[in-house]
Structure formats: structure tokens, C-alpha cells
Amino acid sequence: MCEAQKAEKQKSQEGKERRSLLLFGLLLLTYPLLHFAGYRIPRKPRKIEVNTKIPATGIHTIKDVILFDKDGKSWAVSRKCTHLGCRISYHEVEGYLECPCHQSRFSPDGRVMHGPAKKALPVYEVEKHDQPPYYIISV
Ligand code: FES
To answer: What is the value of pTM for the model shown?
Structure first.
């Protein structure tokens, strides 16, 4: 192999390495760029099982959600405030959800009644059963 062929082969090898490195760099940047643009990998829904019967009031508070079973309908609302993420409580007498941090208020179906929160609370589907688990919430 003459010197010119060796140099040509080395140049070709360096070009392949450069392209591989560039491709690797693009792959590394793809997800952060998509994430920045708003893309999120859809996550698998989590199931919360409620194995106790809920009280006659039709309201049951769990760590992450508040379960409602009223007027023949069952639904669950997230307890994470859409303002800054504090944990919301349900005021049974007044009939609304309130955030203890900045007093945002939400209706039992998650709509904003009073700011500073601007987005409604996520509402989750609930399967109701006659035997335990009495409720299965898809979060
Ligand atoms: S965190 Fe809930 S109102 Fe601010």
C-alpha cells in the first residue's frame, strides 16, 4: 500500500469517526430538545385501589387524590395544586377544595373558582365495584 492510499484510508476512517460522533451527539440532544419543545413520553397510567367503603358523605381523601362518589357518579380529583403544587384539602361544609398555600379554590370537579391557580385540577376516571377493591382510580 502506497503512502497516498494510506493517507486516503486514514482520511476516510477519520470521516467515519466524525460522522459517528456527530450522530451520537445528535442522539444525546434529541430527547432534551423534544422535552424543551413540550414533548413528554406518555407514562403508563397508575391504578390506585380503594379497599374500604367510603363514608356516606361520598368523599374519601387519599394521599394523592380525593375520591367522590355522589349522585350515582364516581370521580377522583388530584390533590396537587396547579399553582405551585401544594396538597389540597376538601372543605366538606363549604363544598370546595382549597389549597393551604395561597388559598386557590376549586370545585369538586376540579374547576378553578378562585386563583392564583389558573389551571383546573386533573380529574381521574374511577371504576366502582361491589367487592374489594371497591374503587379503582386510574391516575
Ligand atoms: S400552591 Fe396552591 S395556590 Fe399556590
So the answer is: 0.67
